[in-house]
Amino acid sequence: MAAPALEVPRSTPYRRSASRRSNYEMYSWLFMRASGVVLVVLVLGHLFVNLVVGDGITGLDFGFVAGKWASPFWQVWDLAMLWLAMIHGSNGVRTIINDYAERDTTRIVLKTLVALALVFTVVLGTLVIFTFEPCPVGADGALLPAAASFCPA
Amino acid sequence: MSTTEREKSAAKRNDEPFDEDGAPRGKGGEQASADDGGLGAIPTFDVTLRVRRYNSEDGDDESPAEAHWQEFTVTVHGTDRVLDALHKIKWEQDGSLTFRRSCAHGVCGSDAMRINGVNRLACKVLVKDVNPDKPITVEPIKGLPVEKDLVVDMDPFFQSYREVMPFLITSGHQPTRERLQSQEDRERFDDTTKCILCAACTSSCPVFWTDGQYFGPAAIVNAHRFIFDSRDEGADVRLEVLNDREGVWRCRTTFNCTEACPRGIQVTKAIHEVKRALLTRSV
């Protein structure tokens, strides 16, 4: 007899893997709540400082960003925002994949892609924040011709 | 008298078990009062039901059976429920229509089905309340394998229920008198004692639709009933079961279960209380 044509839930007959006695899902759930609250403050503060304070959006240019990253306070702020937003977002996508990707291989492939994107963005962003040099100098110690106007001559 | 007023007075009269002349209410009595069209007559009207039919014996090896919609038009009273309309179809039009029902009064939890896209007990929904102007769609509950027409395989549902150990766990000697409990202690899990295991909540949960391994709201509600019972000593074991990858943390707080529950249990709230008990490791 052919299988019923109506939608049946994934992986029937019923088979649930044995409990792994891990609190992973609990900490994941808790992290989403905590990072969400922190991110609201970080992102709204970021938008307010960049777009409203001072000259507002018209004052936003390369020099503005360079000035911010000269201060350890904004380095830590942006670093926290980068890490929390990336992990929060990737974890959200992971739960969606768990919910809706039906085949085991599809789930593994999609989650691997998400993890790779997460690691790449976080590593690149962290590198930029800590190695950012607004006034590039050449091998002879002189400023490169395309340096920003605020760099010392 | 306007139609609505007539319906109201009909509904009011229906609360009384007997007619004014002392005859018990029944089909005959209703028909008579509808015929004379007098004060308090119960209106009758025609309604179309679109029922999702499936019979695995319809197909063969080359072409497996497929579900299809079939429309039935029946004449019902304003006081009839969807279950009465289904009965009329089964008894008068098509005896092969298959559905579960037992008590037919919202207690046994047998006849949960998807009526106009929402999970309801067919015995608790009046036809006049689900817009009889358009065809009323009746489907089996989602997420469980369909066996025939509106009957689904409830085994996965009850498997989850069994895994949360829905029975009193104690240690030591059995007391010589009943296990006493304060009203406050009883109040903590009062809501979740109302569950009738109809599966309306679990089969309304989008996480359960896509992953049948999720414990589902009903199992968590019945775990809640014992976790927060001061006489029970198995809370830690049950919490550990629900801490699973397929446990309470898969809940997306969509409130579909709370909306679907025919007993009015605050299902999502119960799930959240289990989450909080897991986080604080205290009941």
Task: Give a structural overview.
- The complex is a heterodimer of chains A (153) and B (283).
- Chain A is mainly alpha-helical and 153 residues long.
- Chain A has a domain of 107 residues: 3 helical TM bundles of succinate and fumarate reductases (Up-down Bundle).
- Chain A has four helices and no strands.
- The longest helix of chain A has 29 residues.
- The radius of gyration of chain A is 23 Å and the shape is elongated.
- The N and C termini of chain A lie far apart (84 Å).
- With 283 residues, chain B is α+β, with helices and mostly antiparallel strands.
- In chain B, the strands form two sheets. In chain B, strands 2-1-5-3-4 form a five-stranded mixed β-sheet, with helices on one face. Chain B has a two-stranded antiparallel ribbon with strand order 6-7.
- Chain B is globular, with a radius of gyration of 22 Å.
- About 9% of the residues of chain B have low confidence.
- Classes of the chains: A mainly alpha (153), B alpha+beta (283).
**Coarse morphology of chain A:** elongated
Query: Largest sheet of chain B, described in full?
Result: 5 strands, mixed
Q: Order of helices and strands of chain A, N to C?
A: HHHH
Number of strands of chain B: 7
Strand residue percentage of chain B:
5-15%
Distance between the termini of chain A: 84 Å
Spatially, the strands of the biggest sheet of chain B line up as 2-1-5-3-4
Main pleated sheet of chain A: none
Radius of gyration of chain B: 22 Å
The CA-CA distance between the termini of chain B, in Å, is 57 Å
Net shape of chain B = globular
Mean pLDDT of chain A: 84
The helix count of chain A comes to: 4
Helix content of chain B: 25-40%
Order of helices and strands of chain B: HHEEHEEEEEHHHHHHH
Radius of gyration of chain A: 23 Å
Return the CATH class of the domain at 28-134 in chain A. Mainly Alpha
The name of the CATH topology of the domain at 28-134 in chain A is: 3 helical TM bundles of succinate and fumarate reductases
Task: Return the structural class of chain B.
Answer: alpha+beta
Instruction: Tell me the strand percentage band of chain A.
Output: under 5%
InterPro entries (chain A): SQR/QFR_C/D, Succ_DH_anchor, SuccDH_FuR_B_TM-su
Function (chain A): Membrane-anchoring subunit of succinate dehydrogenase (SDH).
Keywords (chain A): Cell inner membrane, Cell membrane, Electron transport, Heme, Iron, Membrane, Metal-binding, Transmembrane, Transmembrane helix, Transport, Tricarboxylic acid cycle
Cofactor (chain A): heme
